[in-house]
Structure formats: structure tokens, C-alpha cells
Write a structure and sequence with these properties.
Elements: H1 11-24, H2 32-38, E1 46-56, E2 70-81, E3 86-95, E4 109-116, E5 119-123, E6 133-134, H3 139-147, H4 150-159, E7 163-167, E8 170-177, E9 180-187, E10 192-201, E11 205-219, E12 222-232, E13 235-247, H5 257-260, E14 269-274, E15 277-281, E16 287-291, E17 296-299, H6 305-318, E18 324-328, H7 334-337, H8 340-346, E19 349-353, H9 354-363, H10 374-378, E20 384-387, E21 391-393, E22 400-404, E23 415-419, E24 424-427, H11 446-457, E25 464-467, E26 474-475, H12 476-482
Helix pairs in contact: 2-4, 6-8
Bound molecules: zinc ion (ZN).
Zinc ion (ZN) binds at residues 331, 333, 336, 410-411, 429.
Length: 487
């Protein structure tokens, strides 16, 4: 019965045989109880599995509205502990460069990712001496990875007094866990076919996280799917073929002391670039505030509302009494756009490439019940200022020029910002200055080469660069050195 494959027989015969087999089996199939028994959900303390396939970089579409870019996964090993709960995922991935798109030469990237209770972190692969890095933004997603596994879903459903209703092909199971809704389908083979949950995202609001499981096999005592396909926000994030799976007895990983002790407070480091121009740096993502006669322009609203609120507070402290009228968005990658909505609530107009507007408008109408932000509460309507060519936010002292960054493989609706009075270039992701002492890249980054070509094409007289990632202000000469243009 368990090995029965309808696809191996003509449809009518398969249906008939299926019905006969079902009738001949003891007990009822397709229920929460029968599936839990079949998948050993109540006795198993955890599962581990290894796989290969594809991984996709959520929130980093090469153009607004496109699918997340794909990576080849040569190794994937997951340990899921239900009694913790905790999880560890190790993976090795390498970007698959899309035809016609210029990207840096792909290299294997190794990750070692953890969640334990409400804490997420990454270990530094191959650098035992480096401290683990907290990943607070990944907690919800990694917790969902635990409770969407077939055994995890069934365990959680049994413990959460799930609502079970018969469906055409088995049962539909719904429950709530830690403020998150879960819904899944159990088929007549007592397999969990699909699990849906919703996790909060600064850009997408309540984002659908959906996993489908097919091709169940008995892996030496553990019945587990051989194919796992997961999508987040409407596009695939994982598609793997499982080669090995087993019950897990190991104890769950504990939160490292450095992560547990990590400060929660957000730091905004301010550096005066020129009178009225402030480089506002964070741990990984930076912004620039420019004081104009009547208003403030902020370039970039990265990460999330927490970051935006900290930057907005710093701007008010540095430039008291002037409203933030414009927030300039370099591109729609989620790490660069997740804080935009807070500025909308603050009363700022969003300045972005015309190709991004429809994407944001659609994303921003999604429900935001999991983590309502300022804009969800105030209900203000966004105001847009879009461009497809040079745009100037004019001012006698500090005019701000915005130019599309044409032909850059990183993103198709991409912009650079230029302050002609200060000869300052502001850009994200096209060029990230190297940290002091870093080993130079083996080949010039094509995104950086393209940035420099754009600077030349637009005849921008750049003295300094305030990159929105990296260790600090640099000179144009540093960009030229990085791409091998300097003599
Ligand atoms: Zn980007």
C-alpha cells in the first residue's frame, strides 16, 4: 500500500485499484493520526537529511517582479530538532548566472545557519576563530523550516489542537503556532503533501511560505520525501532532491555565548562629509542625509523599520526642524528597500526608478497582520517621484542628482546618486570598498566596472564615494584601483 504509485497504471485502473487497496487496509487513511503514525511523527525527536539541488536568493530579483536568482546547491545538510526547537542547515551554493547577465564569476559559498528558540545566527565556515553572527531577521523563516517539515508539521498539529477537515484526497489541517498560521494537506497515502505558513517581511508584509513534498521513500526507517520544493513570496527559494534522511537523536545546538550577549541596540554612526551632508553608517547598510534649504533628502532606507526609525531619529538630531521630504531608493532588493515604508509614514516622497513603482505598490497592499509597521497603522498613501533618466532634487546649496545606473548586471532598475557641489558619488552594491587588509578580488567586479563606465558616460566629476556598504568613505581612485583602471 505504501509503495503504491498511481502513475504506474492507466488512470481508471489506478483509481479502482486504489479504492480496493484502501478498503482492504486496516484503519482510516489520510487523517492526522494515520499520517503521524506512518511518518513516526510522535516518537521522532528530530530528523536529518542531506540533499542537492537549487537554492534561490529571496528578495534579490534582478528586476522588480522577477523570480529570485538561482544558485546550484552541491551540498545541503539539515538537522531539525523538534524538542528544542532548533535547526542547523549547512549548504554550499554557487550562483547560476542568467544568460545575457553580467555577474561576478560564481564561486562556492558555504553557509552554516542556526536557529534555537527565538535566536538565529550563522557560524563562520572555515574560520573557527571568528565569532558567530546574529541573524535576527532570519528567526521567523528558520522557525518555519522546523514546523513545515512533514514530521514537524504533524507534531505541531497534534500539540496545537489543529482543526482537521476532510478533503477530496485526505485531510486539510490548520493550526496556529507562536502567532503563525499553518495549513497543510495530508493525502490518502498518509503523507504530508503541502504546508503553508506566513512569515513577516518588511517589503512583502505577510509573505506566503509554501513547501511541497513529493516522492516519499523509506530512508532506512524514516519515511521522508525525496523531493522538497519551497517558495517564499511567490517564487521558489529551494528545490532539492534528498539523498539521505534519518531520525535524529542528537541534542539541539545551544545559542553561543557571543550571540546571546550581542547588543540589541542599533547604532547609527554619523560622519560629516561636507557641511549639511551626513554619511549615516550601520553595521552592514548605510544611508546619506542631505540638508537642503527647506527639507532633508535621505538616500536609501535599508533593511527594515527598526533601522529606518534609528536613522530618522539621527537625522532629526543632526538636522533639527526640517522635514524629511524625499527618500531616494537605489534599487528594489529587499535589503535596500525594507525601510522605505517608515519614511512614507514620516511624510517623505519615495524617489525610485519608474520600473520599481508597480512592484512596491503591489507588495505594499499585502496584509501585514504579523508585524504591522508604522504605515500599516497610519494607512497613509505613498507619494512617488519616479525617473527613467536624470532627475534633480534642486537646491541652491545641495542639489541632488539621481541617474539610472544603466546596463548593470546587479539590477535592471538601479540608480546612483551624485552631489555635484560636493563631488560625492553615493551608490549601493555596484562597488563595495574592501575592508582594510582584505585580499584583493581575483578579477574586477563587473558591477564596479559598469559603475565606473557610467560615471565616465555621465561625465560626473567624482572626488569621494559614499558606498552604502563597506568600511567608509573612499576616493574615486579606490574604485579605479579595484577595477584595474588606475595607473
Ligand atoms: Zn542589491
Amino acid at each position: 500500500m505504501k509503495q503504491f504509485k498511481p502513475g504506474m497504471l492507466p488512470a481508471a485502473g489506478a483509481a479502482l485499484l486504489g479504492a480496493v487497496l484502501l478498503a482492504s487496509c486496516a484503519g482510516k487513511h489520510g487523517t492526522l493520526e494515520s499520517a503521524s503514525h506512518h511518518l513516526d511523527a510522535t516518537s521522532v525527536k528530530g530528523v536529518q537529511f542531506s540533499a542537492t539541488g537549487k537554492w534561490f536568493q529571496f528578495g534579490q530579483a534582478p528586476a522588480p517582479g522577477q523570480a529570485w536568482p538561482a544558485f546550484e546547491v552541491s551540498a545541503y545538510a539539515a538537522e531539525i530538532h523538534y524538542e528544542g526547537p532548533a535547526a542547523r542547515v549547512q549548504l554550499t551554493r554557487k550562483q547560476i548566472v542568467e544568460p545575457g547577465r553580467e555577474r561576478p564569476a560564481p564561486v562556492d559559498q558555504q553557509f552554516d545557519q542556526y536557529v534555537s528558540g527565538g535566536t538565529a545566527w550563522n557560524a563562520q565556515v572555515g574560520q573557527a576563530a571568528s565569532p558567530p553572527t546574529p541573524q535576527p531577521a532570519a528567526v521567523e523563516e528558520r522557525q518555519a523550516e522546523i514546523w513545515t517539515t512533514p514530521q514537524g508539521f504533524l507534531r505541531a498539529a497534534l500539540g496545537a489542537n489543529a482543526q482537521v477537515s476532510p478533503s477530496e484526497n485526505g485531510s486539510e489541517v490548520r493550526f496556529e503556532l507562536g502567532g503563525h498560521r499553518y495549513a497543510g494537506l495530508i493525502n490518502k497515502q498518509d503523507e504530508v503533501e503541502r504546508v503553508q505558513t506566513w512569515i513577516s517581511n518588511p517589503v512583502l508584509g505577510d509573505a506566503l511560505d509554501e513547501v511541497t513534498y513529493t516522492d516519499y521513500k523509506n530512508f532506512g526507517g524514516l519515511v521522508f520525501p525525496a523531493r522538497i520544493q519551497r517558495s517564499l513570496g511567490g517564487f521558489p527559494v529551494l528545490d532539492i532532491t534528498v539523498s539521505d534522511a534519518a531520525k535524529l537523536a542528537d541534542t539541539a545546538p545551544a545559542v553561543p555565548a557571543q550571540v546571546a550577549a550581542a547588543p540589541a541596540a542599533l547604532v547609527v554612526e554619523s560622519q560629516l562629509v561636507a557641511p549639511g551632508v551626513f554619511y549615516l553608517r550601520g553595521g552592514t547598510h548605510h544611508s546619506v542625509a542631505i540638508e537642503q534649504a527647506q527639507q532633508v533628502v535621505v538616500v536609501e532606507a535599508p533593511q527594515n523599520e527598526e533601522r529606518s526609525n534609528a536613522v530618522i531619529a539621527k537625522v532629526k538630531e543632526l538636522i533639527p526642524g526640517k522635514p524629511i521630504r524625499f527618500v531616494v531608493n537605489t534599487h528594489q532588493h529587499f535589503d535596500h528597500s525594507g525601510g522605505l515604508r517608515s519614511y512614507v509614514d514620516e511624510g517623505a516622497t519615495v524617489v525610485t526608478h519608474a520600473a520599481n513603482r508597480a512592484f512596491y505598490e503591489a507588495a505594499w497592499t499585502n496584509p501585514r497582520t504579523l508585524q504591522p509597521d508604522r504605515l500599516a497603522k497610519s494607512g497613509k498613501a505613498p507619494v512617488w517621484l519616479t525617473f527613467t533618466d536624470r532627475l534633480v532634487l534642486d537646491d541652491a546649496r545641495h542639489p541632488v542628482e539621481i541617474h539610472p545606473l544603466a546596463g548593470n548586471g546587479h539590477n535592471d532598475a538601479f540608480a546612483l546618486v551624485y552631489l555635484p557641489k560636493e563631488k560625492l558619488l553615493i551608490e549601493a552594491d555596484a562597488y563595495t570598498p574592501a575592508a582594510a587588509g582584505a585580499t584583493p578580488a581575483p578579477a574586477p567586479n563587473p558591477y564596479s566596472v559598469n559603475l565606473y563606465r557610467n560615471v565616465q558616460r555621465l561625465k560626473l566629476d567624482v572626488a569621494q564615494i559614499a558606498a552604502l556598504h563597506g568600511p567608509g568613505l573612499v576616493k574615486l581612485q579606490d574604485l579605479k584601483l579595484a577595477i584595474g583602471e588606475a595607473r
